[in-house]
Here is the input.
Amino acid sequence: MFAIYLRVFTYYLRYWRPTVLATLLTVVQTPFSLLKPIPVAFLLAEALPAMGKPEHGLVLKLGDFFEFSLQPWSLPQIVLGCSVAIVVLHLLSAWINVVSQMMYYRVGLQGLLSLRVDLYSYLHALPLKYHDARRSGDSTFRVAYDSQSLEAFYSKFIFLFQSFKDLAGYVLAMWALDLKLTLLAMAVIPFMVITFRIFAKSIRDQATHISERESSVLSLAQEGLSSVRMVQAFGREQHEIQQFSNSARQSLEAKVRMQFTSMYSSMLTATLLMTSMALVCWMGGLHVLGGTLSIMSLMTITQYMNSLYQPIDSITSVGWDLERAAGAARRCFEVLDQADDVADKPGAPSITSTRGEIVCENLAFGYTPERRIISGVNLRIEPGQTVAFVGATGAGKSTLLSLVPRFYDPDEGRILLDGTDLRDIAKKSLRGQISIVLQDTLLFSTTVRENIAYGRADATDAEIIEAAKRAQAHDFIMAMPEGYASQVGERGSHLSVGQRQRIGIARAFLKNAPILLLDEPTSALDPTTESAIMQTIEELMEGRTTLIITHRIATIHNVDKIVVLGPGGVVEEGRGPELVKRGGFYAGLYYSANLGEHGLATS
Ligand SMILES: Nc1ncnc2c1ncn2[C@@H]1O[C@H](COP(=O)(O)OP(=O)(O)O)[C@@H](O)[C@H]1O
Ligand SMILES: [Mg+2]
Here is the structure.
């Protein structure tokens, strides 16, 4: 717990200047806020009772420190003076307060900003292994919501400090007026703390309950509305509405209960406060009658007592607020403490070009230590060669490909690029040499142009159009209402799968990297689109070292090498015709694709 505080503290250390300045301002503000009850008390207790006496002899007396004779002024002037003082004191204390609170607020948010940016950039730097193990919603939540705990920490600390300062101010001021009364007034504090404690627990349990209810309302609405087609098709509207309204009702009940608890607790504390106020009035009244206390002082003390409530409340509840903030802050720091296990070696050189020779030596990898996905893979790919990977679903084809751009590092063995271990190359520069086309191209919700240029932000319009033409995407892009400036929608939803694929291929043409990874680039397409797109892919493969995963026999039968992955590793390897003769997995694939009779060369 303490470690978290310390860490939050270090985040705010760089803002110590505005924090100190704001704190000085709040200290300056304190006397003004303490003086606030004086004008009214003086007016009612001293000035008005002097009515009818021309020689009023009024003296403004604050405790034993301050005396100021008001003899030169007439009573109406003094009344006016008191009224003006009410406004002036308020304005002074309110304005200093605004300035200092705004300073605190800005600093609090600046800390939040820097934590958010740190988190977001660190999440981008973390290897896929980290992201695989979590839902993306969880990381999003940490960046967007958990990070806010940092600001909560800061403002709670400040608040705590201010509450203590206010409390001390009131107690000292009361003390200066009447010691016994102060002790009597303070006797209520422990009772109030106990009441706050008791209710705070129940209120926060209820608040958690409410947020659970609310989030279930949200997820029900989300689920129901996103599958509205299904709901209507099966005529289940009533059922969905019923579920939704039940859940919404539970949230209502929970809120009503919590409102009652919180009103009940304020009522109790107010009763405590009033009881102690009554005691103070009683004893204070006796002191006034005995001549040891002025009416004005008694009025001031009762005013101060009214103000005790707030600081006591916040001091009592701050512990819990900090606890909750600590939980969220811990989730943020957890991310930042995550070691990057696919980190660049210190001083690993960047590469700017590559011949594209890839050698796998005795490769083994599993996402978790318990389960090997591939092992004992030895493979040699010459520059410019095309190697096709086939095998059952889950055999580890995609996994093997993802080791090439170092999305993961192998557990054993190594991959060499032009004779250099991938781990000795700066990750970013390695990825600069590789283009990837996946089964479904991910598009960002921006223009066609920016999506094509995603891998090369500096590309000119001419280059982008050239790449689109080679990917045979130019025509359909021009047919869109705004051509290259058309929006593709969320995740490219305005485009068909085939069109998205063409954009992905255009991206690869534009990036023009010597190594190409294709992971089932056509398997989401219908046969006609598939063969059309395959043509452009074959053009893309020209002159590049290509690793392709596909079951399209027509594409791979004549490539340089076919690798069949089975449980645990490579089970067959060779050219298509050889593998057909051998009669293994590939031969089965070949015959089931019915190509034997269609006259595809088998020799
Ligand atoms: N990110 C991941 N985390 C954990 N296991 C994974 C992950 N990706 C794939 N796997 C598992 O690894 C195995 C191989 O997957 P994959 O390489 O995608 O197979 P293929 O591409 O050959 O169909 C599967 O059993 C799959 O469940
Ligand atoms: Mg796969």
Notes: The longest helix spans residues 237-289. Residues 123 and 131 are 8 Å apart (CA to CA). Residues 397-398, 519 surround magnesium ion (ligand 2) (CB under 6 Å). The chain has a mean pLDDT of 89.
